């Protein structure tokens, strides 16, 4: 089968379309013939050599996909899937290829309301937002959530999830255009972190208590301001550290006085059982929104699989709003 591979870590130019062996189907798995795959920041980090796949996962990039069921393992519950059905899946790797095999518990039927490109970019970003804001952060209706990187795939889906649950969102983005796009997408407030005092604006907007959850992909430079913006008993969930991971100073009195939590979170290294349970709970909690297409990912740009280099370059330059998608339909 055709797949995107690289021989050594490096810039986007190391990515190339090659022929590799198709994955072997295990009894609990489904083989999916790929239609589309989302591009995620984690893919870029792996390509750079800084995010190796977990043990047993495919070394091929790609953490989410949409495609059709091609083969079903012997231990997959009868009737849960049929050959030829359109599905979407949360992957530990392997999405940048013509075929992927994945545990059936990490697969959902793709909503009819979504295109192949939208379904291909839904699972990783949406479940990242769901896990960290709701399951870990404990956000609930009537509260406020601060989302950094509001124009990213995770950020845009976090806005949509919170809006569906009656949670007001404050987001940061890197340009006035992205600020307006975030507001149009459903953010309650949005601030340009390059030109505005985002922390001051968040504190003013979130009066009197502050925000209850911060979803942070920036890292160390934002820690003190995040803490200042939090309501008592609030938490910061770190899903990346794009601007640095080393904090030189931390005022522990702030944590103790407001009873705050700092949480680090990644999903890729979680067990298959954990991911399958998360997929089931998400599908139940948002079944109506999924069926209606109300969690439709924002598709920024679609590239053929062989143009993965261009897709990664666009993401690294920060030019995207929403999801960048790779499609195999042109192979």
TrEMBL record:
Q: Does the keyword Oxidoreductase apply?
A: yes
Which residues span the membrane?
A: none
| Keywords of this entry | NADP, Oxidoreductase
Q: What is a GO molecular function of this protein?
A: quinone reductase (NADPH) activity
Q: Which residues form the Enoyl reductase (ER) domain?
A: 10-326
Q: Which Pfam families match?
A: ADH_N (PF08240), ADH_zinc_N (PF00107)
Which Gene3D superfamilies does the entry mention? Answer: Medium-chain alcohol dehydrogenases, catalytic domain, NAD(P)-binding Rossmann-like Domain
Look up keyword Oxidoreductase and say if it applies: yes
Q: Which InterPro entries match?
A: ADH-like_C (IPR013149), ADH-like_N (IPR013154), ER (IPR020843), GroES-like_sf (IPR011032), NAD(P)-bd_dom_sf (IPR036291), Quinone_OxRdtase_PIG3 (IPR014189)
This chain's protein is named Enoyl reductase (ER) domain-containing protein
């Amino acid at each position: 089968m055709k797949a995107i591979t690289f021989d050594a870590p490096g810039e986007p130019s190391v990515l190339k379309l090659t022929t590799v062996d198709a994955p072997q189907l295990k009894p609990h798995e489904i083989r999916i013939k790929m239609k589309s795959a989302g591009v995620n920041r984690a893919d870029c980090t792996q390509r750079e050599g800084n995010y190796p796949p977990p043990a047993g996962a495919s070394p091929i990039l790609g953490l989410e996909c949409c495609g059709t069921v091609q083969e079903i393992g012997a231990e997959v519950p009868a009737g849960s899937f049929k050959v030829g059905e359109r599905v979407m899946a949360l992957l530990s790797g392997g999405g940048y290829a013509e075929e992927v095999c994945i545990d059936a518990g990490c697969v959902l039927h793709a909503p009819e309301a979504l295109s192949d490109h939208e379904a291909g970019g839904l699972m990783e970003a949406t479940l990242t937002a769901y896990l960290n804001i709701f399951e870990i952060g404990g956000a609930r209706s009537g509260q406020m959530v601060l989302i950094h990187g509001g124009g990213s795939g995770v950020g845009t889906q976090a806005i949509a999830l919170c809006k569906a649950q009656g949670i007001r969102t404050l987001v940061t983005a890197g340009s006035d255009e992205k600020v307006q796009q975030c507001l149009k997408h459903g953010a309650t407030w949005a601030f340009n972190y390059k030109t505005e005092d985002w922390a001051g604006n968040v504190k003013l907007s979130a009066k009197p208590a502050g925000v209850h959850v911060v979803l942070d992909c920036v890292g160390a430079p934002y820690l003190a301001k995040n803490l200042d913006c939090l309501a008592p008993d609030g938490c910061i969930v770190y899903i990346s550290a794009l601007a640095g991971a080393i904090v030189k100073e931390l005022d522990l009195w702030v944590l103790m006085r407001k009873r705050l939590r700092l949480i680090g979170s990644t999903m890729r290294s979680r067990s298959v059982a954990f991911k399958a349970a998360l997929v089931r709970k998400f599908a139940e909690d948002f079944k109506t929104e999924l069926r209606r297409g109300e969690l439709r990912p924002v598709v920024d740009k679609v590239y053929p699989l062989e143009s993965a280099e261009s897709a990664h370059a666009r993401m690294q330059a920060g030019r995207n709003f929403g999801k960048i998608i790779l499609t195999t339909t042109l192979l």
